[in-house]
Amino acid sequence: MIKFKKTFDYYATDNELGDYITFMSDVIAGDIDPQIEFDVESDECHRYVTINILDNVLH
Known about the structure:
Elements: E1 2-9, H1 14-27, E2 36-42, E3 46-53, H2 55-58
Antiparallel strand pairs: 1-3, 2-3
């Protein structure tokens, strides 16, 4: 599995986070069967987007 994690300012909008997820999805769109998982988390200062590309895509 390959993991990408990006940190955003706490005040980043949902649209900004969605644009990042869409961009990363477009990057791996060349794969035959892209399978990704994403998670959005936040704490007091930041919001985090974690994208996992599953192993079966890489083989």
